[in-house]
Each structure stands twice: as C-alpha cells, then as structure tokens.
Sequence to fold (162 residues):
Amino acid sequence: MHLFGKRGSSNKWKAEYDDTLYKIYDWDGNLAGYLFPTFSDIEPKDEEVIVELNRIHAQVTEGTLLLPMVKLNLLDNNEGMDIDYVISSLQANTERTNRWKEWLHDNAEPFNIADSAVYTAREDRNMLSIALDIVETFNLGEKEVRDFLSPLLDKLHEDGLL
Fold:
C-alpha cells in the first residue's frame, strides 16, 4: 500500500531538482525543506549517475526530508536580552518541539518515517531542522517527488508544523 503518490495529492507544493537533491517549496514559493533521495549503491561523488537517475525518473527506496523545526532567536545576539523574552522564547520552542515529538509518535508509522534527528541549520544557527528518514519506494522527478511528498507535507501543514 502506498500512502504517498497520487491519492489525495495537491499541487500546492513544488519540488525542484537541484544538484542531487530536491528543494521543496510551498504555494507562496517559500522554501519549505529539502528531500535527499538515498542512493545506496552509488558513490556519493558520482553526480553524473545521480543526474541520469533523476532524468529517467528511477525508483529509490528511501530518502531524508529536512524541514525547519524551531526558530530560537536567542543565539549570536550582541545585545543583552530581557530575561522574560528569553523565558518566553524557550517556552514557546519547548512547546513546538513537544508538538513535533507528539506528531512523530502519531504519524511516523502511517508515513513510513523510520527515524528522525534534529540538527542546527547550516544557514541559520538559530534554526533547528528535523530530518525525517522515509522508507518507501518512490520515483525521482520533480512532479513525482511532489506527488510523493504532498500527503505528508499537507498533514504537517494542517497540524501547524509547516
């Protein structure tokens, strides 16, 4: 049974292939995340093979979806911060992080999320990103990736996490 795919897919998301990964955009054109297909039998530096697999819309059996999780707004601040602001920010981020934990508890199995991990975003030290390892066969290609991810992205959006 495929939980992803055309069932219930919407066109409000866009996937754009870019250098062996897919950038995921929302309906307003804002970058929402990244999908890193897993190429288990390919040397990581063999970009030509990966580009060809994308061109022919090859099937892969898993990938990692990287999404924004929380925005801290506490690091690298050159001026002092009011302690109430710091407490408020920490509480809000704790609540959001707990919502992610509950969401994963309730939705990991239906969306074939085998594992997750939290990272500091490379481009913004104040942003924590969550990586969702999805184990399900899907085809490469911008439309195919969009259709594959749409149910998951829709659910995250409906639940206020995207």
About this structure: Residues 14-158 form one domain. Residues 83-107 form the longest helix (25 residues). The CA atoms of residues 7 and 46 lie 34 Å apart.
